[in-house]
Design brief:
The complex is a heterodimer. By secondary structure, chain A is mostly helical. Helix content of chain A is 70%, strand content 0%. Chain A folds into two domains: 56 residues, no CATH class; 211 residues, MetI-like fold. Classes of the chains: A mainly alpha, B alpha/beta.
Chain lengths: 364, 258
């Protein structure tokens, strides 16, 4: 019997050349049908017209280092607007000779973020590490003792400010959003109504108006002499705003967890808190990774709106450089540079979410 | 295969009551699902409940561990009355294991974590001990080699056996089965029933909602027939299948046995 089966095994035949490799791929994707063939040809033509000049402008004819006057004659990009001003773009009005402090703080932040990428590193020691890291970063930025001169937060700006607003905005907004989502599902009427009112109110208002309220209206209600740091007010506005959106996304995830999961957990004797923590939330949050990351990415970019309350984030410091007559007219280069930085931030978030999704996949 | 062993165990049911249900009513909105249920289940007794769909048999066993709330009458499980008291309810749920039609394993946890979760968090058993217990029961349902897979990687029959093992890990005094084989492909039904028969041999108190009449005949002490929210007939398997008393029982049996 076995022999018969073996004999009947057909010999392996390779698929025709036109179906595999580059030729096969091009045939299947670029030239399948006359319409796609035309599209391919037109696209190739467009690329031929645009890409070489772009490369010539950005690299070959570009001026990398000059005091500004050299740029006027150049036919290519003037990257010297960046190289001559990068310290102001990155650190704003932070005292020039103290700028190593925000630099170290940022490196520390990147280090922590990078280390936290790996889920196996998530334990309570990493939690302590973050708390200690936060204190060190705050101390580096603010100074005031151990021989570091004090730097008022009004002088903070540039990349550290953008990172501060986004990293802490997002990490605080996420748990708050989850709590709001749970509250909205709660059987306790008071909590439920409160959460719905909060979510709908915040979602019904643009972030800009929240920032304005935080910076202009809110201080009016404070007793005389009490002031709350402007950065903190912006930070809170961002957290409150983002949390409302995250709450709605997480609610979708909660609804995606089948009833049977609650029942199985309950029948084991788990109380509602453990059921949520061990069974429902891990599944719900996993389902909503893609939309959550979308929200985080857009919140990261929205931090640039703090310019309207006169905080000097990365975008505003760049614009300040551009308003210097010496660098007038080089906005293209500066904005491309800023766009690249933002892209790096957004792309790494997107990348990480893909990695996380793959790691957490448990079926098949 | 196990029929002899099961019959040996047949006489084991004791007089002590495990579950007492007295004049219990339940409504879904206006719909009167359970209309005055009276039932006493003795220790080590095995009961099979059958009946047409919508007759309230699933709802009845879901009331026993409070997945559904009854609105009139009393339910007493192992001396604890089910009232609107969270502590009581959790105590009862610890004593009552439940196996669902759709398994309801936790898809984000490995098999062994599925099993160890209850003991660790509810019974406060140390992790290592809970995992040893988990392995013991996985071995019992003949699936120990799958311990580190995720539920989604197992067949339906395997998942249901894991679900049974998960309940056993809590060392329950009663096991409730809510149509445990209805969602399975035919070739997997036997492996699940075999595990249930082994449980029966060991003297577990069981209430099984099922349409597997062969199982009912060989394993049950009593077969209940439910229709329109009432227990219409309750009898030993022999009498139930050979001399059904009520017209509705006869009709139902003629429909499912042919």
């Amino acid at each position: 019997m076995e022999n018969v089966l073996q004999q009947q095994q057909p010999e392996k035949i390779k698929p025709p050349v036109t179906h595999i490799g580059l030729v096969g791929w091009a045939k299947a994707n670029l030239f399948n049908g006359w319409f796609n063939s035309v599209l391919t040809v037109v696209t190739l033509l467009l690329l031929y017209k645009t890409v070489p000049p772009l490369i010539r402008w950005a690299f070959i004819n570009a001026v990398w280092k000059s005091a500004g006057t050299g740029c006027r004659e150049a036919t290519g990009a003037c990257w010297s607007v960046i190289s001559a001003n990068y310290r102001f773009i990155f650190f704003g009005f932070y005292p020039y000779d103290q700028q190593w402090r925000p630099l170290v703080a940022m490196l520390l932040l990147f280090g922590l973020l990078f280390y936290s990428r790996n889920r196996h590193h998530w334990n309570k020691y990493l939690g302590y590490g973050w708390i200690a890291g936060l204190f060190v970063m705050g101390f580096l930025m603010k100074g005031g003792f151990l021989g570091l001169t004090s730097v008022e937060s009004t002088k903070w700006g540039g990349l550290p400010l953008t990172l501060l607003l986004s990293v802490f905005g997002l990490t605080a907004a996420y748990p708050l959003g989850v709590l709001l989502a749970l509250g909205r599902q709660s059987e306790m009427r008071g909590i439920k109504v409160l959460c719905i009112v909060y979510i709908e109110l915040i979602r019904g208002v643009p972030l800009i108006s929240l920032l304005f309220m935080g910076s202009i209206i809110f201080p009016l209600f404070l007793p005389e002499g009490v002031t709350i740091n402007k950065i903190l007010r912006a930070q809170i506005a961002i957290i409150l705003f983002t949390a409302a959106y995250i709450a709605e996304v997480v609610r979708g995830g909660l609804q995606g967890v089948p009833r049977g999961q609650y029942e199985a957990a309950e029948s084991l004797g788990l109380n509602i808190y453990l059921t949520m923590r061990l069974i429902v939330l891990p599944q719900a949050l996993k389902i909503v990774i893609p939309p959550t990351v979308s929200i985080l990415i857009s919140a990261f970019k929205d931090t640039s709106l703090v310019v309207i309350i006169a905080l000097f984030d990365l975008l505003k410091t760049t614009q300040t450089v551009l308003s210097n007559p010496k660098w007038l007219g080089f906005s293209r280069e500066a904005y491309i540079f800023i766009a690249l930085l933002y892209f790096l931030g957004c792309f790494s978030m997107a990348n990480y979410s893909r990695k996380l999704e793959k790691e957490l996949a448990t079926d098949n | 295969m196990d029929e002899n062993r099961v019959q040996e165990a047949q006489s084991e049911a004791s007089d002590e009551a495990m579950i007492e249900i007295v004049d219990m009513h339940k409504w879904f909105g206006e719909f009167h699902v359970l209309q005055g249920i009276n039932l006493t289940v003795h220790k080590k007794e095995r009961i099979v409940i059958c009946g047409p769909s919508g007759s309230g048999k699933s709802t009845l066993i879901r009331c026993i561990n409070r997945l559904e709330e009854h609105q009139r009458g009393r339910i007493i499980v192992d001396g604890i009355e089910l009232l609107n008291n969270l502590k009581n309810i959790e105590k009862v749920r610890m004593e009552v294991g439940m196996v669902f039609q759709h398994f309801n394993l936790f898809p984000h946890l490995t098999i062994i974590d599925n099993l160890a979760l209850g003991p660790i968090w509810v019974r406060k058993v140390p992790k290592k001990e809970a995992e040893e217990t988990a392995m013991y029961y996985l071995d019992k349902v003949h699936i120990a080699e799958q311990a580190h897979k995720f539920p989604g990687q197992l067949s339906g029959g395997q998942q249901q056996r894991v679900a049974i093992a998960r309940s056993l890990c809590m060392s329950p005094k009663v096991m409730l089965f809510d149509e445990p084989t209805s969602a399975l492909d035919p070739e997997m039904i036997k492996e699940v029933l075999d595990v249930m028969i082994e449980l029966a041999v060991e003297g577990m108190t069981m209430i099984v909602v099922t349409h597997e009449m062969g199982f009912a005949k060989s394993v049950a002490h009593r077969v209940l027939f439910m229709d329109f929210g009432q227990i219409v007939e309750s009898n030993t398997p022999g009498d139930f299948f050979d001399h059904p008393q009520h017209e509705r029982t006869k009709l139902f049996l003629s429909q499912i046995l042919n």
